[in-house]
Amino acid sequence: MNSATVALRRILAAVASGEATSRAEIARRTSLARSTVGQQVDHLLRRGILSETEVGASVRGRPPRVLSISPLAGTLAVADVDVSETRVVIADLSRRILARDVVPVPVEDGPAAVLGAVTTRLRELLGEHGRDGAPVREVVVGLPGPVDFQHRCAVRPPIMPGWDAYPVGAHLQERFHAPVVVDNDVNLMALGEAERDDVDPPLLAVKIGAGIGAGIITAEGRVHRGADGAAGDIGHLRASSHSDTLCSCGKTGCVEAVASHSAVLRDLGFRTGNSGAGDGSRLLAEALANGDPKALYRIRQAATEIGEVVAMLVHMYNPRTLVLGGPMSEQRDELLSGVRAVVYQRALPLATRRLTITTTEPGSEPGLVGAVALAARDTFSPDGITRLLQARPQV
Questions:
Q1: pLDDT at 276
Q2: How far apart are the first and last CA of the chain?
Q3: 22, 14 in Cβ contact below 8 A?
Q4: What is the mean pLDDT of residues 318-345?
Q5: Could you give all domains of the chain from N- to C-terminal order, each with its CATH number?
Q6: Percentage of residues of the chain with pLDDT beyond 70
Q7: Which SUPFAM superfamilies does this chain map to (predicted)?
Q8: What is the pTM of this model?
């Protein structure tokens, strides 16, 4: 790699991270000569990767100029697949969300149907929002099941018939002609929660929906996926009770089978439909608001089971922040109090003395936020910057 390419990468990385927003700052931060910085910034401006704008007024001389990633340098396309629907988003390379929508195709219809509908809607959004001239630089997809991160596919997902080993990454890469990352949906949720200003890593995110999974963010802000991508697949740990309850994985006694949102709704007789939620979520909320003893008992029981597993994870990973998400987190008071009680009872003071236990913000979409963040990080990683510099100029 020649010196000019190295300089381009360092300059682009400094601007993308927000470390430097002017030519003078870049020179100071990178120790590159001002003349080199000027030449390479001009090159990036001509390629349409950077933009430079005047801000405010200057007492003397030229007005100050600020460098940023050009809005037309490229587009990020992400999809968060859930049991009943998929949420899709397009964003620019500065992580600004340009458009979002919902694709109402249930995961049980199979990968070809879901990914076909997702591809169509993402392409429509790109056209509707004038992004045809801004190539897709990265695609990120979250799946509600175990994911082989390296091979970009689901591995024996209990609630995703037909998805086992389906080449999700290759399927989408062929259609968007861009790098594709496939990850577990809870990992993306964890990344999204870690983006919040009021959240400190290490972070443990637990999603309680049709299944139960965990995402782990290290102190350095990276996802801990384990050797094969199976880290955080906690739904199939054994529950402390109900050892004879059959799980969708074929085993009995899994915590997912007795404490997931779907399990709670099923036991209360609330209709769930394809999503594991639907009208059932509304009926559960109403029952809890009215003080229904059966509903209160059942959700407290689920919170206790989840708390037992979480207490073990708190000891193993010693997170600073624990976030509960998914449909069950809508029942914030009952869920939080139950999980907190078990965690503080089971875990030792050293592991909990600075632990914050909370839920996702109402109306937030941390999975999509995390997917966009991951796509942007990959785009401006060393390999991503190389691809960006090798791509055809956007003028």
A1: 45
A2: 25
A3: no
A4: 91
A5: 3-69 (1.10.10.10), 75-185+367-390 (3.30.420.40), 197-360 (3.30.420.40)
A6: 94
A7: Actin-like ATPase domain, Winged helix' DNA-binding domain
A8: 0.91
